[in-house]
From TrEMBL:
Keywords: DNA-binding, Transcription, Transcription regulation. InterPro entries: HTH_LacI, Lambda_DNA-bd_dom_sf, Peripla_BP_I, SBP_2_dom. This is LacI family DNA-binding transcriptional regulator. One of its GO terms (molecular function) is DNA binding. It holds the Pfam family LacI. PROSITE patterns: HTH_LACI_2. CDD domains: HTH_LacI, PBP1_sugar_binding. Signal peptide: none annotated. It comes from the Bacteria. Residues 7-57 form the HTH lacI-type domain.
């Protein structure tokens, strides 16, 4: 039978002599059937363990590049560090390049510096704009695999996307919104950090489509470009509340929720339903205080683990696998907070 393992290695795995293994492999007889089965089982075990052998001593230096508010980049860093022990026997080290806002050119400059310096892989959260897509292409041409995290760049040369199905997340938010608002009148404020992040655009489309189907008369009021930062978010929400006295619920797609709640309070307005995304430290605290109705959450540790595995496969350190499935969407309330939530 064909296999890549030397007789000495098979004998050690099976706990048999090399002569016995040689007789089994060459069909020379004089060996009990149970012994022959042990030899074949040892070969199968070695084949399964080849992945571990390939990973022993391998170090993967990854660059994590993100444009996001500090609260989310901190959550990503924490999730990655928690997953590192599970990636053994490989060693994964990471360099972090986090920025809250800024022009796409600055992000492209970071990606180009990584390309010139070298890296085993890039995990990227970035706006879906042509210059970023082109920078990903240059990384791929240099042999540096790129995995998109949370928000995708589908037209780029990235090797995969890890995160949730954002249209389904938006539709889930619409379902919850109508369950809680019911027949009560009122408009819904939808808040995006930027129109250039595909995940936010897809959440908004899923939400709008499901709301139109469930409650076509409900008005949706959109604000955008707050970058998920409290300082800019407050002004946008306060202006929206002044323009529209019928807003009584919020679907926060892009964050800045402390500022949104403060704007409602300063305007003397009630927020009857408030749905948000991600259990970062702000949302965890707000949920525990019952100031958010629910948070749509997905397991960042799972996402980071999958991203690392995609990079390892790109380098031939793990065997090929099927397509990466979207992360499960969890509806988290104050009464089913994950044990790992902090805030």
């Amino acid at each position: 039978m064909g296999h890549p393992f030397p007789i000495r290695e098979i004998a050690r795995q099976a706990g048999l002599s090399e002569a016995t293994v040689d007789r089994v492999l060459n069909g020379r007889g004089g060996v009990r059937e149970s012994t022959a089965r042990e030899v074949h089982r040892a070969i199968a075990d070695l084949d399964r363990q080849r992945t571990q052998v390939r990973l022993v001593g391998r170090t993967f230096m990854l660059d994590i590049v993100m444009q996001s508010p500090e609260r989310f980049s901190t959550a990503v860093r924490t999730a990655l560090e928690a997953e590192l022990p599970s990636l053994h026997p490989a060693v994964v080290r990471s360099r972090h390049h986090f920025r809250e806002t800024g022009p796409a050119a600055a992000l492209v400059a970071v990606l180009d510096r990584i390309r010139r310096r070298g890296s085993q892989g890039v995990i990227l959260k970035a706006p879906d704009v042509p210059e970023v897509t082109a920078a990903v292409g240059r990384l791929a041409a240099a042999g540096i695999p790129v995995v998109t995290l949370v928000t995708d760049l589908p037209a780029s040369a990235r090797i995969g996307y890890v995160g949730s199905d954002n249209r389904a997340a938006g539709a889930t938010a619409a379902y919850l919104m109508e369950q809680w608002l019911g027949e009560r009148p009122g408009n819904v404020l939808t808040s995006l950090s930027s129109g250039f992040f595909r995940n936010e655009e897809e959440r908004e489309m899923g939400f709008r489509s499901a709301m139109r189907a469930r409650r076509p008369g409900r008005t949706l009021v959109e604000i955008t470009e707050g970058q998920g930062l409290d300082a800019t978010q407050y002004d946008l929400v306060r202006a929206a509340l002044e323009r529209d006295p019928e807003i009584r619920a919020v679907y926060s797609i892009g964050g800045g929720n402390i500022a949104t709640l403060r704007a409602f309070e300063d305007a003397g307005r009630e927020c009857a339903v408030f749905l948000a995304h991600d259990l970062d430290h702000d949302n965890t605290r707000l949920l525990r205080e019952h100031r958010l109705s629910a948070v749509l959450h997905h397991d960042l540790r799972h996402d980071l683990r999958e991203a690392c595995h995609l990079v390892m496969r790109a380098h031939g350190a793990l065997p090929p696998a099927g397509p990466t499935l979207p992360s499960a969407i969890q509806v988290v309330t104050p009464y089913n907070m994950p044990a790992t939530a902090t805030g």
